[in-house]
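Q: I'm writing up a methods section and want to include an example of the input and output format. Could you take the sequence below and give the corresponding predicted structure tokens, formatted cleanly so I can copy it straight into the document?
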Amino acid sequence: MDSRSLGVDVDAVDAPKVWDAAAVTHALVVRSDDCLLHVPAAEIWVGVRLPGTEVPERATLIEDTLRAAGHPIIDAEAHDDDVLLRIHDPHLVEHLRTVYGRWVEAGFLSDPGQDRVVPYVMPTPGMLDGLPEREPTAVHAAAGRWCYDTMTLVGPGTWEAARGAVDVTLTAAAHVVAGESLVYALVRPPGHHVTRSAFGGSCYLNNAAIAAQALRDGGHERVAVIDIDAHHGNGTQALFYERPDILYGSLHVDPGAGWFPHYAGFADEHGRLDGIGANLNVPLAPGTGDDRWLTALEQIVEATRSHGVSAVVVSLGVDAAADDPESPLHITHAGYEMGGRLIGALGVPMIAVQEGGYHLDTLGELVLVTLRGLDGAVSDTG
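A: Here is the clean output for your methods example:
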């Protein structure tokens, strides 16, 4: 890869960096205690109960790292459901709001002893085979009506955390609309696997999609979502697949190589109807390192520039890191920093929304260097 084709200052990129706090515009960070309330306890993978990896410590470790580095940090403000209900089916939202209480009322905590909501039957098109879809009355049936996997459990604080993440996201969007160049939404649970009417992949509400819609509502006629999480954001793609005003670009481990979400994220998915040309997937082989990853990201950045966007949402997953247990990609700290600079060189206002990243020992540092890359490029181009 020729770094001179990347559209950033080559000398600044290639030289060893000593970060001067006075020279870097530290991104504003938005957070909420509500995001800590979701405790998945476990995930059911191929029928086996395993420890959950999307734990509250993810958010606290990131916050501690960013606070120590000098990032200004504010609490989220409450927002109504207007944008949320334009992104997601109101019935999905109501299900998430009420399903754990219904589960408790039905007695599942004692019989059979399941303390989290877990689907056991899902009304797939193959199951119904053209028959009308009904609204199930039993809560254990309803669990599979709205959730498409067995990994994404609902517990006593799940709704509060997911809804808190929406408030964080909308607060971040409001600050960008008001003139901030870069705001980081420190959210959990993540969101990019949630479609209009179904959740899964350890995600419950699609924060990145909500951010993009909020930027549109705030006056940006064209917005891009650049997804650097290790896994394809099938939910974000599906939500905007027919829309020309919101470009979705993702680089991720190839679902054809056996990786989640398995059924979406292929290179021939370009959009539909008015959205044709506003979707770009760059699947990557297991074992991909910095060079190929950055080349793929450059492709997405160039598509974003060509699309004429005036704002960007970054789905900031750092689970492509070499030490992360959830993907087979091998991206280094330097790769993430450079990736941030590539995106930041677009020179438009940005919201970075946290997605994956599960190696707790390095999680905070990986987010920090990515934001520093974005900050440095924004500062250089601004």
